[in-house]
TrEMBL record:
Keyword Signal: yes
Listed SUPFAM superfamilies: NTF2-like
One Pfam family hit: DUF4440
The protein, known as: SnoaL-like domain protein
Keyword Plastid appears in the UniProt entry: no
């Protein structure tokens, strides 16, 4: 009887341990989806200030042009420039996300439209984002880079 109980206990422990990565991934996916929805909403409303607030104060962003900007003020300027160039209709689709404690790594496909002088150009690419959990319980991007192709 004791042997059967030990085996059942071991099986339950293994089943619980095996389920943990799935739980962590599910938690990461939920957090990433919520963060991406907030990001797309701020971008699509043209609110560079709200968009910059979704980044850590010392975040680094590289828009795939070989340059990087650091800090919310410069991130806000970067997105003001994008809005001035007619960018809108941003969509993010998660490819993979992984949470490790207070850090989430995300790879996603993105798309957006630029409209200038009545001409629409759709852009798309892949992004890599690292988000950290703040003491206020909010996830903020601390590093974000992407590539783009029309």
């Amino acid at each position: 009887m004791n042997k059967i109980i030990r085996h059942l206990g071991a099986c339950a422990l293994l089943a619980f341990a095996a389920s943990q990565p799935a739980l962590a991934q599910g938690d990461a996916a939920k957090s990433v989806e919520a963060a991406n929805a907030a990001w797309d909403k701020a971008f699509n409303s043209g609110d560079a200030h709200a968009l910059a607030a979704l980044y850590d104060e010392k975040a680094v962003v590289s828009p795939g042009n070989g340059k990087a900007v650091k800090g919310r003020a410069d991130i806000e300027k970067l997105f003001k420039g994008a809005f001035g160039a007619g960018f809108r209709d941003h969509k993010t689709e998660v490819v993979a996300a992984h949470r490790d404690g207070k850090v989430i790594y995300e790879t996603a496909n993105w798309s957006a439209v630029s409209e200038k002088d009545g001409k629409k150009t759709e852009y798309k690419g892949v992004l890599l984002k690292v988000m950290t959990l703040g003491s206020d319980g909010k996830w903020r991007a601390s590093a974000h880079t992407w590539n783009a192709a029309p």
